[in-house]
Design brief:
mainly alpha, two-stranded antiparallel sheet, 6% strand, globular
Amino acid sequence: GAWELAQKHDRPFFLALGFGKPHPPWIVPKKYFDMFPLDSIQLPPHIANDLDDLPPAARNRAHDSDWVSVMNAGGEFAWKQVVQGYLASVAYVDAQIGIVLDALEKSPQRNNTIVVLLSDHGWHLGEKEHFGKDTLWEEATRAPLIWVAPGVTSPGSRCEATVEFVSIYPTLCDLAGLTKPNFLEGVSL
């Protein structure tokens, strides 16, 4: 992606980049693990018997086998290793995104490029005795959606409204001055 931004373009272009991290397996260079020493890891809140008020099917789904395996393998120490791996993977992908954004900042396109950064889902790190996604609790359903649109967004601005990813395409159409197809389900943000 960075090499594409360094080139001159006489027509608008679309560049999509996908990063596999922080998706497991959490294998990244050691320096990213070193940023989060195990003794500094703070575990997410955990309430004993938190799942007792759920119906059996929901409790079985939430209390997943990964949680049981990690806790049987080493309890809180193993749990901290899971959190460390996740944080290291997030730091790694953050550095990769930084490389692309630095290239954009140095490019001729820096003042006329729309940037959209999103993730497909959130991730449980032991909350509700669950590792991963596949729940309807906030940890799994909350995902970042960051927009930078020259002349539209302001640095540091924040929106607390709930939005759907089906609104990304209509919003991009509006920002780029393109006609939206009439079959779209989302609305422009």
